[in-house]
Amino acid sequence: MLWHDLKRAVHTRHPKNIVELKQYCKAEWSKVPPDRCAGPICNYRKRLVKVISLLCEKRSRTTNLCSLFSQGLVYNVFSEGKSLRDDDVLQNLPVGTTATIYFKDLGPQVGWTMVFLAEYLGPLFIYLLFYFRAPYIYSHQDVFTSSPYSVVTLACACHTCHYIKRLIEAIFVHRFSHGTMPLRTIVRNCVYYWAFSAWLAFYINHPLYTPPSYGDMQVNYALAIFVLCELGNFSIHVALNNLKAEGGPKCRRFPHPTKNPFTWLFFFVSCPNYTYEVGAWASFSVMTQCLPVALFTFLAFIQMTIWAKGKHKTYSREFKDYPHLRMPIIPLLL
Length: 334
Fold this sequence. Notes:
Layout: H1 2-12, H2 18-30, H3 34-42, H4 44-60, H5 65-68, E1 73-76, E2 102-105, E3 109-111, H6 112-131, H7 150-173, E4 180-182, H8 183-204, H9 215-247, H10 272-288, H11 291-318
Antiparallel strand pairs: 1-2, 3-4
Helix pairs in contact: 1-2, 6-7, 6-8, 7-9, 8-11, 9-10, 10-11
Keywords: Endoplasmic reticulum, Membrane, Oxidoreductase, Transmembrane, Transmembrane helix
Subcellular location: Endoplasmic reticulum; Membrane
Pfam families: Steroid_dh, TECR_N
């Protein structure tokens, strides 16, 4: 009604040209009391959400992806930078009396639980195909045979338990700050995990595979470190989940060590879950003495270091009392 009243007020003055039209518009707009504008501003987000829902409903008439790929639209008051959060209030944003809302269509989206199921179920079953030596992988005489070395069986058990743990965490433990991931990203991630799983499984379960140089001693020590790192990684994820559950979605706190000894690594690093993850894959590399596993560990370490540095920087910037002793991923070094 505000614009309707303004249009009617200008129309009664009968402007004769564009100059008078601008002049009368400014004059009538200056007569509008601020309280008159408060209502539309307060309801602005609600009306935006309604418009987006109508667009989504319109899209669903031609495709069924709307219900699967939700939250594919973000908005901002700046042409660049991070998008606005769901709890941002328009009056609190650094804008003047007028603001331009920039919408960005992120394309098809997939929920994070579905993302992890797709990423982790693939490696789990792909590795087992190589372990049981399914047809068309190795030579015909090696189909459904087994390796004589116990390290091959241990490696299969470790790899399987690792991804089962990840699936359990994805379903029951993790809490995600962002509801979805772009579909194109999940395709890239699946290719990465599935391809590496097939590559390292091919060599570890190959009929010509030879055990590590130092025999059972190398395997047993690496196995012990692997189990400890897996327990540590799970403990950190549970601690992070409890931190978010206690504080709520709007309460920002940085993690602290708990009574669980595996969480004491928080004294030294900001992201001990990545530290334990790298430790698990490094020990798996030593256990199998396999070059593809070592390469996968190295690439994972680079990526997790990037994530850890970003998280560490966010903690240091957001919390003034953040411990200075903590490093991103490696205690006292990196």
